[in-house]
Amino acid sequence: MKHLLLALCAVTLIAVSACGTDDTIKLSYSIFFPATHAQSIAAAEWAKEIESRTGGRVKITLYPGETLSKAPQCYDGVVAGVSDIGMSAFAYTRGRFPLLEALDLPVGYPDGRTATRIANEIQEKYNPAELSEVKVMYLHGHGPGILASQKPVTKLSDIAALKIRATGLSAKIVSSLGAVPVSMSQGETYEALQKGVVDATLCPVETLKGWKQGEVIKYVVDTRAIGYTTAMYVVMNRSKWEKLPEDIQKIFDEVNHEWIIRQGKAWDDSDSEGTAFVTSLGHQFVSLSEADQDGLVQAVKPILDEYAAAMDAKGLPGKAVLADIKDSISRGN
Fold it and tell me: Which of these, 150, 128, 148, lies nearest to 139 by C-alpha position?
């Protein structure tokens, strides 16, 4: 019995010793996209790249599909430590990030790479206090929003008769066009379209495949003249970040910089796939007349003016941010 106890003690000491030498940094990553979505896949590749470049010293476990925190609670979940890292959209917590709401404005983004590049330029230049609770990994944004509808739309005036799913600032776009905005997450939209709770959705074309919404619409209306994006964040708990060794922080920064391009490209690739998916279903693509496109731009102009005035009232540089976004789009670099 004495020898058995000594043997058990030895095994216990070895196990404790082994645990004590395991200095692997384990991080949890909450993502609201489903696991099969291109953005979840790009995030998984980001996590693998971090693990590879740190020689396995960092391991990141992904929790896609809102399994760890819901999309509107993701940011606060990172702040509170529910997850170490989180990806979601600023639009799900409207008013929480006032200056960065400029990123979602209908300024005519041509593609996801441009939206993603500009989002990071603005964040880096202005370093807004509204993100001071976390460490920003990088931001990204989808390609220009379009109108996907169950009901036929051939001209601008047809839009006013619709109930349209929209979130965040895109709800204001819907209102400016005379339609009725209905707020809900992407995860709820398929059923809402299927049951007629809404007639249409304002979304990037990638959504029609990524969230299967192409199955429950019939028309895709080109509204790129007022192309908006939905800016999204990838952020880390600040305390967790500050505890990382400097060499690992440097690796994160390097990979983050590379993923700005990768994530933007993922959005554009998804848009191409979304277009192909809708085409395969035989749905109709609608191009509005030049006059109607001008009408779209004029209809949303008050939204841009309202944003600038609201930021002035808060003492925030909204006009400067908006000017930077427009200038960057016009330069196309």
Answer: 128
Tell me the sheet residues that pair with 180.
163
Nearest CA-CA partner of 184 in 211, 201, 166, 172? 166
- The DSSP-derived string for 77-126 is HHHHTSSSEEEEEGGGGTTSSTGGGGGGS-S----HHHHHHHHHHHHHHH
8 A C-beta contact, residue 235 and residue 86: yes
Kindly tell me if the per-residue pLDDT of 202 is higher than 50.
yes
Residues 258-292: pLDDT tens digits?
999 999 999 999 999 999 999 999 999 999 999 99
Alpha-carbon gap, residue 168 to 227, rounded angstroms: 15
Can you read off the two tokens belonging to residue 69?
């925190």
CA torsion, points 146, 148, 152, 153, in degrees to nearest 10?
A: -10
pLDDT tens for each residue of 140-167 = 999 999 999 999 999 999 999 999 999 7
Structure tokens at 163: 């109930």
| CA nearest neighbour of 183 among 167, 172, 204 | 167
CA 138 vs. chain centroid, Å, equals: 11
Cβ atoms of residues 278 and 206 within 8 Å = no
SS (H, E, C) 103-116: HHCCCCCCCHHHHH
Helix (H) or strand (E) holding 285: strand 284-287
b/e per residue 263-285 (b: at least 16 CB within 10 A): bbbbbbebbebbbebbeeeebee
Q: Which of 79, 65, 78, 82 is nearest to 31 (CA)?
A: 65
Backbone angles phi, psi at 169, to 5 degrees: -65, -25
Handedness of CA 311, 146, 74, 121 (dihedral sign): negative
